Amino acid sequence: MKELFATYFESLANSVGLTTPALTLFLSLLAGYPLALIHRHYIYGKDAKLQHLYFILTGLMLGYLNYGIKIAHNVFTVIFVYLTFIILPGSLISLAIAFVFTMSYLLIGYFYTSTNQYDITWTMPHCILTLRLIGTAFDLYDGRQPTEKMSGDTKETALVVKPTFLELMGHCFFPSSFLIGPQFPMKRYLNFVSGKFSSNWNGSKPQPLDCIHPAMKRFFLGVVYCIVFHILQIFVSNEYLLSAEFTELSIFRRLWLLGVWGRYTLYKYITCWLFAEGACILFGVAYNGLDGEGKPRWDGCENVKLSVFENATEFGHYIHSFNTNTNNWVAKYVYKRLKFLGNRYISQGAVLFFLAVWHGLHSGYYVCFLMEFIVMYMEKDVSNFFKGKN
Length: 390
Description:
By secondary structure, the protein is an all-alpha fold. The protein has helices at 2-15, 20-43, 48-67, 72-87, 92-113, 123-142, 152-157, 165-172, 186-193, 212-235, 238-241, 244-247, 251-283, 306-310, 315-321, 324-335, 344-359, 363-386; strands at residues 198-202, 205-208.
């Protein structure tokens, strides 16, 4: 029976142009919506431990469906880092251990699992987990520092009290963000569980805000991007770019098709992020205060700014609109922490090197981020030249 189901699932994946791991991941992202509805109607506002357990069990269930017993790598990493929080809570040594251990574990995982293909293995959620644990270690360290020395964004996320094991596990394995992101700090998770993102109170029970419409909006945008991606893939596929037919085209035609390919390739990431963001909104964890009209904002877990991305006229627009949660993370926990170097270019170079290492061991990552540094440096000079600035 198990073999029959596996064969059927593989056939279904092939029929929609996906590998079996990719289809499993895709369905896991969609599973975030019914899981959010269950939490919204039956668990929201109840005891925090119950909510943590729900997030842990559902997150691990999705992890097991995708990666089987190898999900133990992720669990072990969380346990190890938590032990450092217990033994050396909020210390610089604890922060250093968490940073070195999680990054080393991730790189070793890349070394043993990477191939020449696009790999969907346990290292994918592990790279998300790595940033989440390092960020929590930083927040715990910040919470032990004098308030007057903290910046505004540091005060918002600093942890004065060490998180419990259930809190850390619930944050790390939150079902709609564990697999591919988005990143959000422990403080946001704790505020969400405690009911601080509620609109009103019914006796002693907080009520969830009305977030179904914004959640469905991001979901349907994800559907649109998914459809566009698969349509364009028919005309400009990876295989076509490597074919003899493509090499016979004129240089202008090839450049144009490469531009189309490079653009729509990003749509698969945008699709996944929109689905994950929509589920985070439906859970309620994406609440981000009120706008100027007093209406709730739901961009707390936004990972792509579509209006900026689709209207980009500069390379910098792509950086500011694509994978924004990761960009914000490295800006806060890496770039600003290197302020003591006194040179922003060295800090930027260190950030891009960190991102390259975090992505993996393939040389393409390092070439990509080196080119980003060069292009951004050149773009700034060219922009200043045309604006008449020195």
